[in-house]
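Subject: complex prediction, re-run

Hi both,

The earlier run crashed halfway through, so I resubmitted it with identical inputs.
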Amino acid sequence: MISPLNGADTAWMLISTALVLLMTPALGFFYGGLVRGKNALNTMMMSVSALGFVGLAWALIGYSLAFSEGTSFVGGFSHLALVGVGLEAQGTIPHILFMAYQGTFAIITAALISGAIVERMRFPPYLIFISLWSILVYAPVAHWVWGGGFLSTMGALDFAGGTVVHINAAVAALVAALMLGPRKDYARQAMLPHNVPFTVLGAGLLWFGWFGFNAGSALSAGPSAALAFANTMLAPTATLVVWTLLDLRRSGKVTAVGAATAIVVGLVAITPAAGLVSPISAIVLGAVAAVPSYFGLLWRARTRLDDSLDVVAAHGLGGTVGALLTGVFAEKAWGSPVDGLLFGNPKQFGIQVVAILVVGLYSAAASWSILKVVNVFAPLRVSKRDEGLGLDVSQHGEEAYVRGEGALLILKDALPSVVVAAATAATAVSLGVGGRS
Amino acid sequence: MKLVVAIFRSEKLSDVLEALFRAEVRGLTIARVEGHGGEVEPVETYRGTTVRMELSEKVRIEIGVSDHFVNPTVQAILAAARTGEVGDGKVFVLPVEKVYRIRTGEEDQSAVTPLFPPRENE
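This time it finished cleanly. Structure:
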């Protein structure tokens, strides 16, 4: 008997897994550049810690709930702690590689939420929240769409995660932003990005990693991956051009933060459609996606909704446009299992709408419940003083841009015990009242 | 005329500027400085190196004001920069011997008086 394992597919999926993993630190740079300097490390750590906490939760529990045999609503427990996940084939690649690849998706999805709650959430409850969220929200939703659950039976199209990843994370982000409330300076002071070059760097690395995200979702190194790859290049080009023109029309100036945002919006929008639509459709999809996100984030900034880094406008609106247009532009001729509305199958559009609503409602309800419970054991919000001081010092005891002058080394045997105790106590930093802008 | 020098927390800068503009005080110089005002120092750790940050960032503003502006200026700063914790900063009022406005060569009182007189109720 010939082994179903395929060397080319395996090689491509090994690379794709590494590419998608890189997206999470890239997201840290993208988000980290957009906040004030006193919160730069905290914002980056929200992504970096997801690599550990969500990655581990995925291996121990999440993968089983998403991809083992179960009901149409959630997987079973047969792969808990990676039991039965070995070198055997899953499709044409080793099962263990499939698990790792899917794990990188769980990590970035949870990290995406952090953009809505930067500069004000205590770090321990954040870690608890994303760990629980990846198990209780991400894993079941991934099962519905990709693990043989009811949305896949219904025929919902989501090539690489427009609904599972982006709409899911954006709705959780919206709920979290509402529950935490706006930052104390929100709409009172100008809060400017402290390092726009980081944001541009992050957007570039996200685009690079996204080739693994979308083309890797073919789970093989064939024509489907090639189409997804090309579409991942093409859709954001159109988004970037349309965004630039909108910027020019509005203010006469083309902004770098806008360009970085446009790239992400284009990538988000093409995600569900990547391997299912023609390249020209991908360009149209990318161009159309720019419009709601562009005006969405202009409108959001005038409201009391402090979705600080516009997760809803970029991932929610971009993901929704992408998921809907997947139901319009999908083409059997380009490898889609079914045609979309434009090619004589209007029913597909309705299925896409249902999938978006179901995932959005579940994510909202479950995210709200998790945050409520976490808040009982670990208050979500930092104190006003810690917020003024900055979360780098108050939550991490570090600064992104430290100068070192006036820093006294604390030696255990050379100082009064009270100082040593202060240095080792986790709460010591919250005593600090020195101001940093 | 006097020179008002104030050193306070940098996170209070926006509040102080807003209060000064409300008090119709225009024309000031800002410097970012580091200092120590007796507050408890934050402790930070970098790979096992634990340090006490003795100096914290502060903002220092300097405003040359004509006599009837001294009190509104000081009161605006006191109210806006206060948190009630050690480390809020200081306000100094210094005598000034001579002032010139570079653009016009005006001297003394007329050089530090804003171009538009303050409102009656200030």
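Residues 347-377 of chain A form the longest helix (31 residues).

- K.
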